[in-house]
Amino acid sequence: MTVQHKPPATVTHDSSTPLPRAITVDDPETLPPTGEPCKTNILSLFANARSANRPLYIAAPMVRYTRLPFRLLMQRHFAVDITYTPMMIAREFKNSKYARMADFSTCDLDGPVVAQFGAPNAEDLIEATDIVKAYVAGVGLNCGCPIKEQNQEGIGAVLMGRIETVESMVRGVREKFGRSVVLDVKIRIHADLDRTVEFAKRIAAAGADIITVHGRLHKQRNSVPASLEAIRRVREAVPREVYVVANGDCFLAADAKKIVQVTGADGVMAARGLLQNPALFAGYERTPWKAVELFWSYAMEYGSPFKNTQYLIVEMTQGLLTKQERADLRLAKNYQQMEEWLDARFILKRRGEVGFAEKEFDGYRK
User: What is the pLDDT of residue 364?
Assistant: First the structure.
């Protein structure tokens, strides 16, 4: 294992001091963050990384999982430069306080984070953006989600066949907010790559700041290799001031290097690779034990649905637990059972205890 000694985007939090409180967009007792890291200018991050001849490392929007605790783990400790929220449904976000509370929270340590929305029209996207823009470093439009139910509502990958609709959404955000909102459009590819190139050129002309390309067709499974050729063609086709991010098949730091070499992309986005190893961009070939302790701490402090936390810990421990142990951990029904299971096998250090988040791979196994 080779560990890259690249510092995280901001200083890690002192484990001996309390974590900052969570912030939601409807909480009258909190104000939007006004400085680092939430309001980091991510276009400056791209420009600086380009000058340094390196890509930005980015955590993809992952359904249910890129909530506040997992974002903090990756950015504050393991070299991820930018994280995304899970895709949020713009119509629900703008209409329902409950949806906003359930889908989005942040804190003074969070970010830079991009709030990604699924939207079928400019009105929904603009209204959702207006609510969240003070709390994030950018907003993303999802044109890649393959879920049938979302596609039936005009959201996600179905938009790859509706370029005029996507253009209207991008122009609508740009006309409403000017350059005060950084806008990313995440796309998939077409069987005819000329269509993908034309799609990207049109959304760049409409005002997108970032184009993230998932190099697979709408209905292709993840077992099909992502098309790096498609991403390369998009990078070559759009103006240099529009940043292009490559998404697909990044599981190791070496994968990120190869993707950039082939595509010329300005950033590399990982999803499944980070679920299995949130430290991959820091050069770890498998999850270090300290990541488990850190994630547990953030989940307990900021709240996380039990099933989400359970799934993430099972995924993260592929190189730490045996196959049977991971199967047993899946049988836990609630937080108490999962905590008892971990404490029976490990000395699970809590924040503030001596040795918290220091162990690499033996995990204090009993």
Answer: 79
Taking the C-alpha atoms of residue 34 and residue 204, their distance in angstroms, rounded to an integer, is: 29
145 is catalytic: yes
Hey, what are 62's tokens? 């992952």
Q: pLDDT tens across 47-81, in order?
A: 999 999 999 999 999 988 999 999 999 999 999 99
Mark whether 201 and 222 lie in a shared domain.
yes
Identify the DSSP state of 87: P
Query: Does 312 lie in the same domain as 270?
Result: no
DSSP string, 301-314: HH---HHHHHHHHH
The answer to whether 278 touches 310, Cβ cutoff 8 Å, is no
Query: Rounded CA gap, 245 and 266, in Å?
Result: 6
Are 200 and 238 in contact, with CB atoms under 8 Å apart?
yes
pLDDT in tens, 310-366: 999 999 999 889 999 999 999 999 999 999 999 999 999 999 999 999 998 877 788
- Active-site residue (options: 38, 107, 145, 250): 145
Mean pLDDT for the stretch of residues 143-172: 95
In this predicted structure, the answer to whether residue 264 has a pLDDT above a threshold of 50 is yes
Whether the predicted pLDDT of 212 surpasses 70: yes
Domain containing residue 126? 42-282
Bridge-based pairing state of the strands 138-143 and 88-89 = unpaired
Task: For residue 107, give the DSSP letter.
Answer: -
Which of 307, 274, 297 is closest to 356 using CA atoms?
297
pLDDT tens for each residue of 36-50: 888 889 999 999 999
Q: Which residue type sits at 206?
A: A
Q: Where does the chain have alpha helices with state H?
A: 42-51, 68-77, 90-95, 97-103, 122-132, 148-152, 163-177, 193-206, 228-237, 253-263, 272-276, 289-302, 306-316, 323-329, 335-345
277, 320: one domain: no
Read off the amino acid at residue 64: R
Give domain status of residue 58, yes or no: yes
95 three-class SS: helix
pLDDT averaged over the chain?
A: 93
286-298 in b/e form (b: 16+ CB < 10 A) is bbbbbbbbbbbbb
- pTM exceeds 0.70, yes or no: yes
